[in-house]
Design a protein that fits this description.
Number of strands: 24
CATH class of the largest domain: Alpha Beta
Strand content: 15-25%
Oligomer: single chain
Bound molecules: uridine-diphosphate-N-acetylglucosamine, phosphoenolpyruvate
Shape: elongated
Radius of gyration: 22 Å
Distance between the termini: 32 Å
Length: 429
């Protein structure tokens, strides 16, 4: 077990290179299963979730090789396994993304149900219902989704009850090799959906209107291999920008895309940041103590739930009161009790967090509960007086590439340390 040890007080300054997007790389790695010749994917971030995805491909009997720091070649054979076991799925919810490709390619798939997690129940009923509409027979038994199609999947008109990112992605991948046209209505519009569509099209698929709420997919008979570069991580970008504003610093994020971050940049500006942007970079300059902001999370293009925790950390030390309403996940405020331990004044009322900024936080031992909660604790640690020890950092390693190295390069005082096994003192009765 490792922890991040943060000495507060440093202002972030300098340039940081943004990695490829986790939430685009994962579906793209899974979609490579559909190809009938090798696929090379560039700008893949070095993350635990990517390792888990590669392990899952390996478990399925799909060979892959690392070409360089961020480039991989996947070589999908004509025949391979179709079971995604609990041991791998339980460590990464995005494993559910193998369901669509396996079913479309092999005609059957068994994928462990991912189950609930810290931020909410996160059911996958929409994935299952959509595939049933495409002709799949699906049963859920012994904790597994067991899906089978008799012949090819059939195109269908699918209206999704709720906007679901991985649900839309799974159905897009299943539809890519189906017979006829699939229309997904009330589809997610996240940039990662567009990136997956571009990748599928680069392999010969016919996916249209990704990025709108109605996606049309004309099934094709085969997908070939090719090369693709994953889009930049908009959530990593946003996290660094919030960290810079919270520490009253000045940074430039490179290799990113400001167009993906409109809602976040708007809130940063409202919080007092001076933002300048170019085609693939964003600069943020602080103008003093940040001002608290109010926001509501909602599907893209509205404010992303994956940036909510970082803004709660910002509001904790900002001037004034900020009201944050979380509408996507029912339990995504696990960072709040930890931030309170550092002196933050945050009231929780149902799905709303009301923060009144304090002049200073104080360092404490805190515990990560999920990926973005971890990022918020690191940000809080950087502005707190004294030392903060952030435990259970395996959560942060799922989604941030070398976070402590990138922050240290910007001037943060942060190190990764091994945790000592807890010593239990025995007292004689
Ligand atoms: C790997 C990946 O891309 N993860 C992202 C993806 O997660 P993920 O795709 O799991 O999140 P969804 O968009 O599916 O979830 C949105 C809401 O829909 C509900 N729902 C979803 C599917 C379903 O079958 N039934 C159902 O009720 C969920 O419980 C949640 O309340 O989108 C989330 C919302 O932007 C992000 O926070 C995650 O970072
Ligand atoms: C919730 C997230 O990821 P996942 O869907 O992989 O759990 C996230 O990236 O913030």
């Amino acid at each position: 077990m490792e922890k991040l040890v943060v000495q507060g007080g440093a202002r972030l300054k300098g340039e940081v290179r943004i990695s490829g997007a986790k939430n685009a790389a994962l579906p793209i790695l899974m979609a490579s299963i559909l190809a009938d010749s090798p696929v090379t994917i560039h700008n893949v971030p070095r993350l635990q979730d990517v390792e888990t995805s590669l392990d899952l491909l390996g478990e399925l009997g799909i060979p892959h090789a690392r070409n360089s720091e961020s480039s991989y070649t996947i070589q999908p054979p004509a025949e391979h396994g179709h079971v995604a076991p609990y041991e791998l799925v339980k460590t990464m919810r995005a494993s559910i993304l193998v369901l669509g490709p396996l079913l479309a390619k092999c005609g059957h798939a068994e994928v462990s149900l991912p189950g609930g997690c810290a931020i909410g129940a996160r059911p996958v009923n929409l994935h299952i219902e959509g595939m049933r509409q495409m002709g799949a027979e699906i049963v859920v038994e012994n904790g597994y989704i067991k899906a089978r199609s008799h012949g090819k999947l059939r195109g269908a008109h699918i209206l999704m009850d709720t906007v679901s990112v991985t649900g839309t992605e799974n159905l897009m991948m299943a539809a890519a090799l189906a017979e006829g046209e699939t229309v997904i209505e009330n589809a997610a519009r996240e940039p990662e959906i567009v990136d997956l569509a571009k990748f599928l099209n680069a392999m010969g698929a016919d996916v249209r209107d990704a990025g709108t709420d109605t996606i049309r997919i004309h099934g094709v008979s085969r997908l070939h291999g090719g090369e693709y570069t994953v889009m930049p991580d908009r959530i990593e970008t946003g996290t660094f920008l919030v960290a810079a504003l919270a520490t009253q610093g000045e940074i430039r994020c490179t290799h990113t895309n400001p167009d993906f971050l409109d809602a976040v940049l708007k809130k940063l500006t409202e919080a007092g940041a001076q933002i300048t942007r170019g085609p693939d970079w964003i600069e943020l300059k602080s103008t003093g103590r940040p001002k608290a902001v109010s926001l509501v999370t909602a599907p893209h293009p509205a404010f992303p739930t994956d940036m909510q925790a970082q803004f709660i950390a910002l509001n904790a030390i900002a001037e004034g009161t900020g009201v944050v309403r979380e509408t996507i996940f029912e339990n995504r405020f696990m960072h709040v009790p930890e931030l309170r331990r550092m002196g933050a004044h945050i009231d929780l009322e149902g799905n709303t967090a009301i923060s009144t900024g304090v002049a200073k936080l104080t360092g404490a031992q805190v515990m990560c509960t999920d990926l973005r909660a971890s990022a918020s604790l690191v940000i809080a640690g950087m502005v707190a007086e004294g030392v903060t020890e952030v435990e259970r950092v395996y959560h942060i390693d799922r989604g941030y590439e070398s976070i402590e190295k990138k922050l240290a390069k910007l001037g943060a005082q942060i190190t990764r340390e091994k945790m000592c096994p807890t010593r239990i003192k025995r007292t004689e009765a």
